[in-house]
Amino acid sequence: MKQLKVALIGNPNVGKTSVFNALTGLNQHVGNYPGVTVERKVGTTTLANDTKAHIIDLPGVYSVNPSSKDEEIALKAIFDASNKDFPDVIVVVAEVENLKRNLLLFTQVKDLGFPTILALNMADQMEKKGISIDVPALEKALDTKIVLISARKKEGINDLKQAVLNYTKYNTNSIFDLKSIDENYFTLLGHLYPNENPYKVWLTQTGVFQFEKLSPVVSSSSAVQKSENELKKLQQRETIKRYQFINEILKDTYRIDTSKATDIRMKFDRILTHKFWGYIIFFFVLLLIYGSIFELAAFPMDFVDGLFADLSAWTSANLPEGKLTELLADGVIPGLGGVLMFVPQIAILFFLISILEETGYMSRAVFLMDRIMKPFGLSGKSVVPLVSGTACAIPAIMSARNIENPKERLITMLVTPFTTCSARIPVYIIIISLIIPKTYILGFVPLQAFVMTMMYVLGFLAALLSGWVLSKIIKADRKSFFVIEMPTYKAPILKNVFLNMYEKVVSYIVGAGKIILALSVILWFLGSHGPSDTFGNAEEMVAEKQMNERLTEEELASEIAGYQLEHSYIGIIGRTIEPVFRPLGYDWKISIAVLTSFAAREVFVGNLATLYNLGEDAAEDETRIIDRMANEKRADGTSVYTFATGISLLLFYAFAMQCLSTVGVTKKETNSWKWTFIQMIFMTGVAYVTALIAYQLLK
Questions:
Q1: What is its main location (predicted)?
Q2: Residue 60, domain extent
Q3: Which of 75, 622, 641, 649 is deepest in the core (most CB within 10 A)?
């Protein structure tokens, strides 16, 4: 079967992804370009009985002169003939309402010599907006095939497929005269490269891209050598001349009669981007997102957690005893549970974000927040990950994909784990209950609740300040300019919403899941194995205590588990690193609990219950744990959990990277172990220093 390669390209917010989804449906997948974080979307569609199309959906760009590293990498897909997705035909998606701006990119792509189709999306909105287009006249002026489509209503999609099938019939000649920019210069380029595409020659001269096999037939003269400043002036002149060319064409082929328009976009914009009410509305939208992630995901997360706990118990009880059963029951199955438990949160978050984007509201929210976030090296779009991080950093980091600027996207991913997530709450509750008295501020504000609230504020401030620091350290390839589209308001296409949600869930499971699972198995091994002379003799070592204290079976099992954890490899590591944590006020038990809670912050409480031999159910009984911790003494008789130690622990958990799953997602999203380790070292360093200062000052 014949297979064509088709590239979809267009400005942001023209409905290009909707067109891609209408063409491919579920026959698509998402991945990264090799070695970089830019997403590439590919899919297939049937054009005829003997022909299929392999479609690549390129990220939104404004022109072939890229303004970011991401745009440059994406555009190489249509410039680099050696890449496997190099297209046979290009479909430029434009929007009927913003046709003039969209045609700049179209004329540039057309001049590269590709068979090019212009797909005018949102054709169903033309009458509503008072727009009329003389399609035959526009086709003739642009020397291209034009298809009117509505991805929302799936109108014109079959016509677009037919147009792609007939791509060999289309003229590939340039439509814009480069000599109108500078006749002498471009005449000289034509003389030097008579057998090459003129626009490719020009883009090579500007340094945008280096095309293969571009060598002059005669020796280059000094007249063709231009300074960087001169080339920029020519690029600016090119843009001006192209818009003049576009204006001349649209003058007779494109009309907007505002008297017939029934659009209420401006009325909505006046409210949603208002300097006061806009922020109030956005605040309630964030509350809805946060509340949905926190509340709606609770039941399915508990269900998944319980399901894998039961599966682990069943495996342990029914399979033959041995290391393989232990690996499955205590390593692989809990690791899989740790991966899949976060799926409900990821699905809900991206479902809601997709709705905001589909309706056009997200662009307004970004416009509002960019002014606030920019001084901290972040984007207006960073506010969604930062707020979502209060539920869980994993879907929050993934949502940073929506930030186009690579520097701002990277900083957002690196600082989002500072925001207080739900996994920290059990730790905070235990420590605050232990060191903060049950008193009231001003007679009615509970002091413990106030401290808990301040932990949330502290996390958000840490994220902002860290963003500011990283913005000074991380250098951008080029200066970032805030350019954002204000798309038309529209009802969300549920197919697009669910496809986007599905992509993100699959991407998390396949990409981050394997990293999380591997690290979970490693931590399991370190925690459930140790030197045979101590770890393997746990029952004998606690037998004397059983005789003296007459322990119940549950107490005996807990005593053995605590002994084994203490003498496991992770326990040995914990005792070894105790001198490192001692200046923070931690004994060896706290050190082990901190170290093992790297798997997930919330297991800190359960690990302490095991170390203090409180039984398997003690993690659910806050009173027993608090009482035991309050009575814990050092060798010299002083209390372990003083006010200074408690504040030190709160600060350490507020700032430290104590989550295995977050590490996996950071590696997946940055596509770099370098930035993953930098994040871990940076956060751990901040946590250690602040906890150290707090303890030393308060002890």
A1: membrane
A2: 2-169
A3: 649
